[in-house]
Amino acid sequence: MKKSFTKQLISLILAVCFTLAFPALSFAADSNQSDGEAKSESIYNEFKKSDGELICVSKYGDTDKFPENSAEAVAAAAEKGADIVYVSVKKTSDGYVVLMADSNLSRMCVDELGNTVNKDIGDVGYHELSTYHLRAGTGSLHEPITSCKIPTLAEAIQYLGGNAMLMIADGWEYRDEIYDILASENALSNSIILATGDKKEISSWLASKTVMPLVISSSAKNGNAKSYVSKTLSAGCIGTLLSAKNPYNSVFKDGVQSKFKDAGRAVIDMTNSDICGGREDNPTGWNDITKRGFSVIITNDIEGFNAYRARVKSYKTSLTSDLEKAQATDTALCSTSTANKLKKTITEAKSTLSSSMSESELMEADYSLRLAMEALADRTENDNGKTVTPGRITAVVLVVIALIIFEIVFDTLRRKKVSKRRTENGRAHSSGKK
Prior knowledge:
Blueprint: H1 2-33, H2 35-48, E1 55-59, H3 71-80, E2 84-91, E3 97-99, E4 109-110, H4 126-129, E5 133-134, H5 153-160, E6 165-169, H6 175-184, E7 191-195, H7 199-207, E8 214-218, H8 225-234, E9 239-241, H9 254-257, E10 265-269, H10 283-291, E11 296-299, H11 302-327, H12 336-355, H13 359-378, H14 390-433
Parallel strand pairs: 1-2, 1-11, 2-6, 6-7, 7-8, 8-9, 9-10, 10-11
Antiparallel strand pairs: 2-3, 4-5
Helix pairs in contact: 3-5, 11-12, 11-13, 12-13
């Protein structure tokens, strides 16, 4: 009986241990597995906010270290701080979707003997393609040959591991194959397909899918950009990639940019000045383009852009803090002109804070707010042309206190004098009666 009880006790202890252990093990596995997914989900959630933070998109990956569109370059871009990596895809003769910008392989590929491969990718099967090596960086004859190979889209997704999102370009004509690859790799929620179709085509395709993919519309036909943006966003796109050679094109103006409000993100490729209105891929160009409403920036300078958006974030934090101080300021003793100036500056600062991603606009708004606050602190130039300073306010208060004290003393003395007269009169009256 004692042995039976001991066995039951041991069994119960083991059961409790296993019950507690397995959930913990399962949780640990889920936690490790979801690191990359959590990061890409965070990027996606930020992307969905039309007034959210700036988004850094690396063009073809980190080409300083690896060949463009290679799996290694894609992963390195994520490590460098890119939120999204823009890749181009092509299809081989036997139907594989691979990463490659050009239809012809001569710029990027060499065969096993080191000879340049002058073939179109659509004429080459994947088995042959997998024997080729990529040239470093952006390719061409002067670049050295690397050990990197052309990856399939599935391989690139696996290599990236959810540490950034993918933006897949040049594959709209075989979007169904891309969709199937994303679905099989569980990457529908962290990959974006660039759609070059019109509103009807995009809407019809999205409606045919049980699980909605992430799509950004992309069109070089900006004659009616306002309508294109509005219609494709309403069809289900999360943003629109716009381009123009003319720096004064409608895509850079409020009429088009207003269509993104609470609806999606304005995307621009800064790596080619011919498609972003002649602007350069540098802080000056980023400042100008973000001032115009673009918040998803395709760049070749991940670190530079991240430094720029860090400054933007810093100015937003500073402006938020100064705005809170300004709103809490009591202007009752201030002149009408300085109080009204502060009120106007607060309104402008609020507008800038809620809508701008431009470093210069945020900096100017904060500077103007501080100037308005300083004008209040000095209490200068009231409506009568007099200067109202803290010292003078103190003096006025002291004078008022002195007057009150004088009034109290005077009233006390007056009361004593009246009381004394009444006493004397009372005595005189008493003496007369006697």
